[in-house]
Amino acid sequence: MPRATKWMAPLIAAMTIVVGCGGSDQSKSPQPASPAAAPDAKKVDEAKAGSISGKVVVDGALPQNAAIQMSSDPACEAENKGGAAQETYAASDGGLQNVFVYIKDGIGNKYLFDTPTNPVKMEQKGCHYVPHVLGIRVAQPLQVVNADSTMHNVHGMPKANQEFNFSQPVPMTSSVTFTTKEVMIPFKCDVHSWMHSYIGVLDHPYFAVTGQGGKFDLRTVPAGTYTIEAWHEKLGTQTQSVTLGEKETKEITFTFKAPATATH
Amino acid sequence: MWLHRYAKLVALSTVLLIAAGGMVTSTGSGLSVPDWPTTYGWNMFTFPLSKWVGGIRYEHTHRLIASTVGFLTIILALWTWRVEPRRWVRTLGFLCLGAVILQGVLGGLTVLLLLPPAVSIGHAGLAQIFFCLTLTLALATSPGWRAPATRDSGLATRDSMLPRVATLTTAAVYIQIILGATMRHTDAGLAIPTFPLAFGHLVPPAWTPQIAIHYAHRVGALVVTLAILATAGHVFVHHRDRRELVGPSILLLAFVCSQVTLGAFVVLTGMNPVVNTAHVVNGALVLGASLVLTLRAYRFTGSRYTVHGSGFTGSPVRGFNEAEARP
Fold this sequence. Notes:
heterodimer, A: mainly beta, Immunoglobulin-like, five-stranded mixed β-sheet, 2 helices, 22 strands, globular, B: mainly alpha, 2 domains, 9 helices, disordered C terminus
């Protein structure tokens, strides 16, 4: 017996250490922003800035979103009595919604941008993420709210930032920040397998998520030549090059091809 | 006799635990409870039933079954230590206990570290080893195992080939299970979405790490099936009157047939969680049947076994007989 005790001691010690360390959640701690700006970087002169606006459209008929079976959680089912569907495709007035449009290249490190301190809010409401797609700045707080009467876990799966997973067992708010730009970071709830959202993290303010009519608007953009990218969770990405003069307004349109068949 | 029955119960509970673990992975619920050993801050055993929703049901059930198996294993180790005269069997009891503790730690770590493939694969691999240990203990305490093996009684027949072939087969099955676990934990389960051909070819026309893992598992299935056919064929040809060898051989053949069928349906159903889990559990049964055949092959046909009676010369396996009993 003493011999068995001897070799089991390290195992028990290891388990104790693991138990003791459990529950730490580094990702929820605010991290300082570190957008690398050049020494001679300056603020954007808003008086001379222009804007890039436009629309994202779809060529063809979009598939129907897949229905969600919520019977595994009565609280979710009660919130969606009329039935629920995935949010993969959302279209209105011929435009595609939930497309993340942003300046991918061209901003470089020539400009200084203040890091917003006002939080961006993402709710878990009716067992859906609201909004489904959103943008945020590096080091800007993301408030994750559980507005449901059920339990959620919030699982962010970035590649460039630190992955995290924390619980929200009751209605509550947690805060998350990101240290590096990354497009896009998938979020999911492992309790409710249908819950997904996507967050674009950038070190500049030139991004938008298409809303009604698939429209977007990037304002106070300094003159220059830029690569604009439009990202959709299923239809992929498209890019366009835009050269913007001082005080100029440019209109662009992205056209995604609808997938052939199947529901999503 | 009661210890043998209890050891069988622990081995069966382990199969149930593997099934529960398979459901966790197959439903993607591994991180639905972000904390460990607590559950959403609750003590695991007081977590309210009303909160077992969505993926939590699978993960929390797995944790509770694991705790139960851990508790059963503590009793098994202590019981074996108290009543078992053979030292190697007593040691085996504590090996089971060590394995189940380590398995619990790995399970917790994989949750806290957000399912790193290496830890998750280790968790899956150790589950099978723990199952093998409990199965070995159940076999070693069985009346059939403890009966003297004698040439006169027909229980002992020299055949040095069968233990070797059976050992290789068991090793191949285990490697195949590890390949399968690697496939599950690297999201390679549908890397080749067609069956039986890979993208319409015998060999995939394009390669990624995930396609390579998936394809290796398919090739592994072929190798394991051939190994099992060879082992079972050897038993049917050379030991057809030996129930203790023919029985596990028939089981092995049945399990491998259903395993290949289930593997095909995992792909064809787009990884249906129930089919996927059945494939995992059946894989454990293939390993278990192969292990039982291997151990019995060593016990009853190997060149190194205990000899009672007259006229037969063989070298005794240390600790396999009552002469090795604790004073």
